[in-house]
Amino acid sequence: MADLPDVPTLLDAAVSALGGTHREGQRTMADAVTDAVRRREHLVVQAGTGTGKSLAYLVPAVRHAMAEETTVVVSTATIALQNQLIERDLPRLAAALAPLLPREPTFAVLKGRRNYLCRNRLHAADHEAEDAELFDPRQLSALGRQVARLHEWAEETVTGDRDELAPGVGDLAWRQVSVGGNECMGARACPFGQECFAEFAREAARGVDVVVTNHAMLAIDMTQDGRLLPEHDTIVIDEAHELVDRATSVATATLTERAVATAAKRAGRLVEPGIGERLTECAEGLGLMLADAPEGRIDHIDDGLAGAVAAVRDAAAACVSAAGPATGEFDPDTASDRKMALAALEEVHDAAVRVLEAFGPPLRERTEVCWLTRSPSRPPSLSAAPLGVGGLLREKLFGDRTVVLTSATLALGGTFAPLAHQWGLGREAAQEAAERAERGLHPDPGPERAPDPDDDGPHRAAGEPRWRGLDVGSPFDHARSGILYVATHLPPPGRDGLAPACLDEIAELIEAADGRALGLFSSMRAAQQATEELRGRLEQPILCQGEDSTGQLVRAFAEEERSCLFGTLSLWQGVDVPGPSLQLVIVDRIPFPRPDDPLSSARQRAVSSHGGNGFMAVTATHAALLLAQGTGRLLRSTDDRGVIAVLDRRLATARYGGFLRASLPPYWGTTDPSVARAALRRLTGRTAPEPAAG
């Protein structure tokens, strides 16, 4: 394309048009993204809150897409950021840059097929609800009302996107009117193929400059050899700290009695009764074995459970074989039933195979972990997941394209190495260059330079992608804006709930701050305990997660300055409340994963069995990431001030405490409770600082 303005010029125009502030970190990041795309080198960028990282990667992405007539993919972890990009950031950016470019930039959002209403399934839902016999009449009545709503919505919606349905419907109702990629019969065969919302979305994404998707869709695309996303040479992964968890979730196979029973029901329409009934019996047998199996990680599968899983595998395979190939006659209803049945059968068959194969190698050599989960509201489930997804990402993501990974939290313990290892990346280019220089070799062989045949030292393992890391800092002056208070005088956290001294500490801090507190707890039980015991002691209103939708609670917390909000995991990353409503963040304990968490415990053991430090590589890394995310709720604008109170003495006293503290911004630190309370009182202008304890 004809000469385009450079990225600094476009960034200046965008910032000015959008009424923003020019930030050094934003410009540094935009330059780095531009350079990475030019050099075909992967880039890891930590950009603190307030940097304006969305513009810092969107402006170079738009320019590259237009210059090379290609598409740039932007992947996010949360619906909130995805919607922000599509509904606010990209429309405003496109309008701001249009006067400087030959045409206005284009963009589209692309989600998994399951997110779009399927007209063919909607038609089928008229006749019967999936798994109808598995639910009581009250559930079916509610389900019927929701499906009726979906019928009405289908006549109004332009996109068929579930996220645009307000109020929403439950997962069970949505499953009646949607299909996964493996269940879709294809636009050519489908009687509603010309009206397919998912196909409309895919068509809209072809040829645009920027396609916004999510990490789950990205992971599915990787497992399907890139057949879902449009052709591209650059990917930006925002909220990159979530990539491993989302990829692991996509790569996890789950087996339940209900899933097998559903597959048997669908197969019953295609195969001889006896063959389908055999799979139904296997579903019942699996249910009996799962009911008796202990919850948690399974290192050695007993003969009974192994036999039940093997029976499911064989019966599902028999159903697939009996269904046979599609006939030459074209019947849309039959074709749809066949596709749905084969998808369900293959899913339970493949899950059974993965479970059984997970126990084949010796424990030290296994690459997958299995576990059983129980829930009061759901039947038991048997899952198999990979111990790591680094190999998948290295092979399928970091290939012949540029990948930019960014987030406010990526450097853990002061280095990108922990997350880079999980992503399947090796040592970064700067470290490699330094090592080569120490050995008297050329400091940077460059992306085009052939390997040195005389270099017999292992500076990069075979297949390791080339990358570099960059921390562009934050516009916040953390040492002046925030205090990190560690309550070293409190007893160590126990297993029996919050100690009385801990509750007293929380009460004193809230009184000093006059509310304005976000309580981040390690469990829902702890959040509820604190809520129940402190509501009677404090005049400030306390909101607790679970009493309303999280969105409603966050809005109420933001609107009432003196209120407090207590909760657990989703609040650690999902709260953005700038201003005086949030001046105190309370963390009850270091957020280590539960010792009995099957996946993290198996990963820790695997690292240790190969000579590594499993605790630091898995447990401490998990805690550092979540702690950085949670404490990052305090400062959301340059005018914010406040205190982070960690009620776990181990952050200051344990050997790993230095690693955790190095994962946080450079707050001013103290272990003196009177200093923390005095600072909170000054923020509210209520009283003079209290004297230090004698």
Question: Could you characterize the architecture of this molecule?
Answer:
The protein is of the alpha/beta class and 694 residues long. It has four domains: 7-106 and 207-244 and 392-438, P-loop containing nucleotide triphosphate hydrolases (Rossmann fold), CATH 3.40.50; 113-202, no CATH class; 253-386, no CATH class; 478-684, Rossmann fold (3-Layer(aba) Sandwich). The protein is 46% helix and 12% strand. The protein is built from 27 helices and 18 strands. β14, α21 (550-559) and β15 form a beta-alpha-beta unit. It starts with 6 loop residues before the first helix and ends in a 10-residue tail after the last helix. Mean pLDDT is 88; it is low at 128-138, 441-460 and 688-694.
Uncertain stretches of 5 or more adjacent residues: 128-138, 441-460, 688-694
Indicate the CATH class of the largest domain: Alpha Beta
Shape: globular
Structural class: alpha/beta
Q: Can you give the helix content as a percent range?
A: 40-55%
Share of residues in strands: 5-15%
Biggest sheet record: 7 strands, parallel
* CA-CA gap between termini: 73 Å
Summarize the structure.
The protein is of the alpha/beta class.
